Amino acid sequence: MTQPEFPKGRTMSAPLFRRAVAVAAAAGVAGLSLAACSTKNDDDGSSSSGGKVTITVDCQPVASQKELLANWNADVDAFQKENPNIEIKSVSVGTQCNNPPDFTARLQGGTTTDVFYGYMTDLQQVLDSGQVMDITEYVNSTTVPTWDSVDAGAKATFTDGGKVYGIPTKNYSMGLVYNKNLFQQAGLDVKNPPKTWAEVREAAKKISALGNGIAGYSEYSAGNTGGWHFTAELYALGGQMVTEDGKKADFNNAMGKQVLQTLKDMRFTDNSVGQKQLLQWPDLLTNAGAGKVGMFVGAPDATTAIVTQFQGKYQDWAMGPMPGQDGPAKATLGGGEGYFFKKGLSKEEVEAGLKWLAYQKLTPGKGQFDYVRAKPQNNPVGLPQPQLFTVGSAAYGQELEQRKANANVTVEDFAAFENNPVPVKVEPPNAQAVYAVLDAAMSAVLTDSKANIDQLLKTAEEKVNQVLATGGTGS
Amino acid sequence: MATITAHGKPAEVSGSRPRPPARRPGRRKRQLQNNLTGYAFLVGAVVCFAVFSWYPMIRGIIMSFQRTRRGETTWVGWDNYERIINDPSFWTAWKNTFYFTALALILGYAVPFLVAILLNEFRHAKGYLRILVYLPVMLPPASALFLFKYYAYDPSDAGLFNAILNFFHLPTSEWMQSTTMTMPAMVIASTWMNMGAAVLIYLAALQNIPGELYEAAEMDGAGIWRRIWNVTIPQTKLILSLMAMLQIVATMQLFIEPLILANGAGTQDSATSVAYLIYQHGFFQNDLNGAAALGVIMLIVLAGFSFVYVRLTAQQD
Question: Given A20, A360, A443, B248, which is the most exposed site by the fewest CB atoms within 10 A?
Fold first, then answer.
């Protein structure tokens, strides 16, 4: 073997090596930089000079969502024609308008649009960032004509200390989403979905018996979504995640055990939830879109996602109310979305933003409620939610009438959900930190046949108590 | 008597008239002009480091002692550190990270060195083999990990690894769904992804070893293992120790593997790493200050490793 010769003393010296290593170690702390790389930037393109008000608004559909994007752009054109002194600059932030890491980065970096999308549960984070504006004095039935009809519960989620910080534009509550095709194939009654967890178990066994990699029931257990669903299922049994004062965990009891035991039995006794676990939102919906999921806990808009993002079909899906222990669920987890206003906007800009939201999000027959336009498209009309307007209000009546007249999904498929309302309960304090803890318990019962539920709950309780005792972390 | 300096310029003659002070700035100016190109090259690197490394690092340290609520930032002393140390996943994350680092040192450190030795022995197709080994490095890490997630680590018998194990009638695994296999599975994927770069560095070091050392060893009757032990390893000691240190620093920042392979924390927190915990706090739990505190703790730990390395290698010198 011939080796090329190098003159002595020309290779890197030991001290130089050491220095290189030290620099590499110092430069390598990506995590530190990750947390610190946030800077505020106020240059966002908004203006209100020369009589014309320009505002930036996010959550414009992405190019792949052709029909939704065309609808949005048509709404912008129509709105600007009606309001020649307002210009809407649309910004797309992805198909999931609030992917939490992206949303946090925009918020902390001060790069949100003037009017920016967020979840109802984002209020605390948005307030802490100091990026949001108190719009109480601007919101009324003049700026938002249907404001008095908007559901008080939805409004409350964007209100803090009597001050309004956002406008709700969608709401949801969870139920049992199921695949009608698989129900039929398994000999189940499509019009009579399971109402208790025992019935869910039985139905799941029959559906999974179809084989071909089909899970009778599917469940999340990773990326904080496991804890999210544990919460929903605990609420259904009448439980709560934390005590009324919000200081202690309150799920280490018979109800918490029941949630985990049912899932563990379905996984290892019935073998009805599939072998692949550690699922998150896109994993489960991908399987659902492929026709491999019989049932899962979700909101009506999950079917929209299955169709628009995961190649499913509306006609395959139906929904029942959230199952309970021995009868109807005691409560179900609810949430929703809306828009915040960036701090520092002028009166004219806020009013322009409100006018746009009123037009596109809160007027029956317009924007998201333009059912005549949506009917021939691949967008669902006839789903029971969002139900933004108070029952009995004028806006509620108009929206309901137009929704029924233009339905392109089979309304009866969602009747069991709509006709059996379950009290809605909101997320616990420090929701994401609590969910992260409960992911461990959910993943354990779905992957480990020897998982000790008592121990899992005890550990989770201690951890959640730790989270709550240290002041939590915010959201 | 005029003497010539190392730079070839005449030095001051002893006892001659002192140089007028006015001439000094001119000399400095000339020196500055002479070195201008060097400074110009330096500016880019310094600015990049300052903006993208040093500033975020200093900002992170400051943030770790602050708390921002309702847009108001206040100094809170050690509160963030106290909260982050009391985080339910704090010790699990450190335990997992050290475990990954240790496993990676066994597998991810030894394998590339052995592959480099093997490649170095080939007389033909050396270039092709190097490209082959380096190819995985060219794949975006996310793509490589998705390949492992969906094809290699499928928990059913359809998974690539389970199919191989089945073929040899060996027990299969649920891979990422098993608390015991999560870490080894992440190390295997990580080694496969990153091995190429290490192999090339080792190859370069191996080719620096004078051929006569091997010839002398062979004449003394040394076999392959003896030659590796007595010639290859001592001759590449410096690069081996550098790579060990770099690997520790890199593996301690374990992030993308748990994020993609284990969807974050994995089964029962078995994949939670320190960097993933930083991500959780910073981007999911509205706790950038806690994330910054954990980042500083990580910096201190890595600086500790670095210090130990410097001391150990200094003693060896």
Answer: A20
Residues 440 through 459 of chain A touching chain B, CB cutoff 8 Å: 440, 443-444, 447-448
Tell me whether residues A100 and B283 touch, CB distance under 8 A: yes
Cβ–Cβ gap A473/B290 under 8 Å? yes
Q: State ipTM.
A: 0.81
Q: What is the pLDDT of residues B213-257, one digit of tens each?
A: 988 988 888 888 888 889 999 999 888 888 888 889 889 999 999
Which residues sit opposite A175 in a β-bridge?
Answer: A298
**What DSSP character marks residue B298?**
H
In sequence order, which residues have a C-beta less than 8 Å from that of residue B126 and are 6 or more positions away? B119
Q: Which two tokens stand for residue A437?
A: 């803890």
**Residues A3, B211: C-beta atoms closer than 8 Å:** yes
Pick the residue from chain A with its C-alpha nearest to B269: A440
The domain defined by A175-331+422-469 carries CATH number 1.10.940.10: no
Reported as a single tens digit per residue, the pLDDT across A57-113 is 999 999 988 899 999 999 999 999 999 999 999 999 988 888 888 999 999 889 999
**Which CATH number goes with the domain that contains B284?**
1.10.3720.10
From A351's Cα to the closest Cα of chain B, the distance in A is 23
User: Do A18 and B310 make contact, defined as CB atoms within 8 angstroms?
Assistant: yes
Tally Cβ neighbours within 10 Å of residue A297: 24
Would you call A29 and B295 a contact, using CB atoms and an 8 Å cutoff? yes
A104 in B contact zone (CB under 8 Å): yes
Domain A53-164+334-361 has CATH 3.30.420.250: no
Cα distance between the two ends of chain A: 64
Q: Does A31 touch chain B (CB under 8 A)?
A: yes
| DSSP H or E run through A23 | helix A14-27
DSSP class per residue in A91-105 = E---SSTT-HHHHHH
Residue B10: count other Cβ atoms within 10 Å of its Cβ. Answer: 9
Pairing of strands A115-119, B66-69: unpaired
CB B86 within 8 A of CB A470: yes
Structural domain boundaries, residue B188? 87-316
Q: Does the residue B14 lie in any domain?
A: no
Backbone angles phi, psi at A87, to 5 degrees: -120, 130
Same domain, B49 and B167: no
Interface size A-B, in CB pairs within 8 Å, comes to 242
> Can you say how many angstroms the Cα of residue A236 is from the centroid of all Cα atoms in its chain?
19
- The beta-strand segments (E) located in A214-309 are 215-217, 293-298
Chain-chain contact of A278 with B316 (C-beta, under 8 angstroms): no
Question: Could A37 and B56 be called an inter-chain contact, meaning their C-beta atoms sit closer than 8 Å?
Answer: yes
The nearest CA of chain B is from the CA of A305 a distance in Å of: 20
Residue B4 has pLDDT above 50, yes or no: no
Hey, CA dihedral for B262, B266, B270, B276, is it positive or negative?
A: positive
Tell me, yes or no, whether B285 lies in a domain: yes
Q: Which pTM value belongs to this model? A: 0.83
**pLDDT value of residue A24:** 42
Torsion of CA A373, A375, A380, A385, to 10 degrees: 70
* Mean pLDDT confidence for B29-52: 87
How many CB atoms are closer than 10 A to CB B78? 11
Average pLDDT, chain A: 88
Torsion angle defined by CA atoms of residues A254, A258, A264 and A270, in that order, rounded to the nearest 10 degrees: 140
